[in-house]
Amino acid sequence: MTPADLSRTVLHAVRRAVDEGVLTGPVPDSVQVRRPGPGGSGDYATSVALRLAGPARRSPHDVAQILRTEILRAAPGLSRVDVTGPGFLNFTLAPGSRAGLVRAVTDAGLRYGHGDALAGTTVVLAPADEPRAAVWAETVVRLLRAQGADARTGEDATERLTVRPVPAHLAGDLVARLGPDAARWGLLRPAAHDRPATGDSLLVQHGSNPLFTVRYAHARTRALLRNAADLGIPSGDDDPRDPGARPLLDTIGDHPGVLAAAARHRAPDRVARHLERTAEAFLHFQETCRPLPAGDEKPSAAHRSRLALAEAAGTVLAGGLTLLGVDAPEHL
Questions:
Q1: Handedness of CA 260, 261, 266, 270 (dihedral sign)
Q2: Residues paired with 83 in a beta bridge
Q3: Exposure check for the chain: N or C terminus, fewer CB within 10 A?
């Protein structure tokens, strides 16, 4: 069960509670599911009960308890649903609930995380001449379309994005100096209100450069698969059971929710930060759970499942970079 699956589960529970008259008030268009904050528990959490409490004229804690009952009725992928604090719902996934995640990524390919969360929504962004605003609008349109929205830029704009511009003395030669990929990353990675990155550090081939880390991690996934093919080792179709694989599985599972949130909030920087987390998780995974056998070690089912996870990580990295308009190289 991914955060996107869990979000739909909670939304269906809200709808059932309203339809059955247990809760009153409007059903929200979406429900955000995130990692638990301080004082939380389990794998994921949502604060939707706090949003619903006012219209329902009940305390957030009461609303959370109602939703807890509804969720447990139809969520076999959960082992626990707890209410903490004033009314946060905390979810603990059942053992094996991540099964099939790698297969889901493999089946969807670069479209993993695309969905219909914004289907039926029309967004027209105002055209922009300033370099950062133009790149931001182009990328937001791509993110919106990936979530099913009808999105474009045009003079009949319904929205205007506001971003901190590139200083005028740096804008002219930005692409020529950094290249299109580094320039785009530097404009998209900082949040809209933050200063864009325009320095030569974007070209450094070192782990201190997040863009290099993301692209290097993707290239490493491709190299592992090439080496495995040379050795005659196919990737498997099961999620690895190594404890060290858990952080990478988590970041891959988070990918659909990150893309949906980035589209809703017009925030491509969220995608860039998630790619950094995914790259770091993969690089740690490949060191602690080696996907290829060493020395005289025989290939095993564990190696095949680790290779499958490496392939899934590469797919997430490539898909995210593609949405940002940045190349995902096979070799680096």
A1: negative
A2: 89
A3: C
Residue 120 clears pLDDT 90, i.e. is over it: yes
- What's the pLDDT tens digit per position in 86-117? 999 999 988 666 667 898 899 999 999 999 88
Looking at the predicted structure, is the pLDDT value of residue 323 above 90?
Answer: yes
CB proximity list for 299: less than 8 A, separation 6 or greater: 231, 233, 293
Torsion angles phi and psi, residue 242, rounded to 5 = -60, 135
The full length of the chain comes to 332
> Residue 104 and residue 135: Cα distance in Å, rounded?
31
CB within 8 Å of 190: residues ≥ 6 apart: 164, 196, 197, 269
Chain centroid, CA 157 distance in Å: 28
- More confident of the two residues 50 and 6: 50
Residue partners of 160: CB distance under 8 A and separation at least 6: 125, 126
Question: What is the secondary structure of 206-256 as a DSSP string?
Answer: STTSHHHHHHHHHHHHHHHHHHHHHTT----SS----GGGHHHHHHHHHHH
Higher pLDDT, 153 or 95: 153
Q: Tell me how many degrees the CA angle 77-80-82 measures, rounded to the nearest 5.
A: 135
The rounded Cα 323 to chain-centroid distance in angstroms is 12
Which of helix, strand or coil describes residue 70? helix
* Type of residue numbered 236: G
Beta bridge partners, 90, equal: 45, 82
Lookup: tokens for 261? 């949130």
The two most distant CA atoms of the chain are separated, in Å, by 67
Mean pLDDT to the nearest integer, 20-33: 90
Q: Which residue reads 């050795």 in tokens? A: 231
Long-range Cβ contacts of 5-13 (<8 Å, 24+ apart) = 5/77, 6/33, 6/44, 6/91, 7/31, 7/32, 7/33, 7/46, 7/257, 9/71, 9/74, 9/75, 10/46, 10/48, 10/67, 10/71, 10/89, 12/74, 13/67, 13/70, 13/71, 13/73, 13/74
